Amino acid sequence: MPRIVIVGATSAIATHVARRFAERHAHLVLVARNEEHLRAVAEDLKVRGASAVDLYVADLRMKAAHQDLVDRSVTILGTIDAVLIAHGVLPDQDECDEDVDKAIDTLMTNALSAVSIMQRFALVMKKQGRGVLAVISSVAGERGRPSNYTYGAAKSLVTQYASGLRARLRGTGVHVLTVKPGFVDTPMTAHLPKNMLFAAPSHVADAIVRGMRQRTPVIYVPWFWRPIMAIVRAIPERLFMRLKS
Prior knowledge:
By secondary structure, this protein is an alpha/beta fold. The protein has one domain: Rossmann fold (3-Layer(aba) Sandwich). The protein is built from nine helices and seven strands. The chain has helices at residues 12-22, 35-47, 64-77, 93-98, 100-128, 149-168, 201-214, 225-234, 237-240, and strands at 3-7, 27-32, 52-57, 82-85, 131-136, 174-181, 218-221. The model has no long low-confidence stretch (mean pLDDT 94).
């Protein structure tokens, strides 16, 4: 019976990941801000086979909640087999350009809170001598673009921190997985016109669970984002600055 913590459990991708673990009769600790939504997700997971579902309601922008979240998870689960950090927001870049506080809030939510929670769970897993720590970053973190550089900068920080943490924990029995989705058809992107680059959240969830099981260091979802981003990273800065998006 796997013992799993899912942070940002009401997001579309996280919910599908939780369903995969529920089918394996996992004991789940779900973390999110909206209690009503969280309870609805929990009831669905119980029907799908979860052995137990515990809830932790918190605004993850508040650092004071992070250590309590980790301590409560240890108290509930004992040994933690895996953690998925999946919370985040997709801000309007124009609003961030005009409102510095909104930009800072975005960085706090998407980057600093993720790093804070990731590091605290890493310490627990290192003491255990085992565990998988997965964090959702984004291909947006690979190069700053005018249309979403605040979001991209946050994801870039998450990617680099996870890379260093993975190297730091090598040989301890703890594995860190970085997930880099491209466009995903979720409520977060409901305002964007859809095209063939959009992936279904269920597809992304399958890739995450497979990556956690196989202890893959980094996954791009879908796979074609890896060569696409290699090309994007190779574009000279002067040329890249002329691109509109």
